[in-house]
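Hmm, how's this folded?
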Amino acid sequence: MRQSLKDLIDNTIIYQYSIPHDDKKIDGIDLCNCEDDCYDYSSDENLVELIYNSIIEYSFNEFEMTEYDYSTLFSRALVTKLKYKEWQDETTKIKYGFYGEVLLYAMLHHIYGANPIISRGYFYNPLENSETKGYDSYHLIENDSEIELWFGEVKFRDTLMSGAKSAIEGLDKALTDQYLETNILAMDNHRNDLAISGSLIETILESWRENPLIKIIDEVKKYNMTLVYPVLLVYPDKESDFDKKIRNTVNKINKKFKAKTYDLSINYKLFFIFLPITEVKKIKQEVIEWIESKKPLLS
């Protein structure tokens, strides 16, 4: 990741606290088995710039970024790595899913220190002309004490509950052995694009290639991996008091959705990342303007 992009993330996405928070009397999300994280942001302009510039890293692994200039990569990304059709009207463009996905990518990579296994753009197929299927992120934390697969979800919606409902209803599918297996196997079609050479994901895929009858989930268990599933919600809230924003967010979600368990046979960590902003549509409109005016990219 470019240092200039890291600096922009630091200047834009501002960690406030995790919940539950006893001093502030704010509960956590009942569905989650980890603390939820709450962020503010510095300005609309910085957020637009962050989304705009993160498209390159979202689309390409770092080794490819050294071979081409950024403007060339950006132009290629719009055509082959994410759903963006310049000829479509603004209403259609605002519905694209990449705005939140590139933001999730940037936050997991830089703020949470989860290295990308593969940039999400490699899963996009221009022939399908549809949003990319699967998890919204593919990241990894691998060291002597823990191996965590960070496969998350993001909703960047006009209302809090629209995003929360969509994300939570998807957990029944996302947190299953079958879906996890399918997403890991999907990486086999992109072996040359994996960003983490020598990782255990490569080892697991190699074992499967040698013996396709083995179950991927059994290999995941063998290495005692944990699925970490962050759910990033970006939503509008014009309340001036940040604590009230988060308190209201938690109360609304907990009132609608109760704690439950999921059909996943490996350890998992589920938590929300909250980023309330002033206006969702305005941010997306300005990203579109930046794209179509070909604003200069960070170097």
Summary: The radius of gyration is 19 Å. The chain has a mean pLDDT of 90. The first helix runs from residue 3 to 12. The first strand starts at residue 13 and ends at 19.
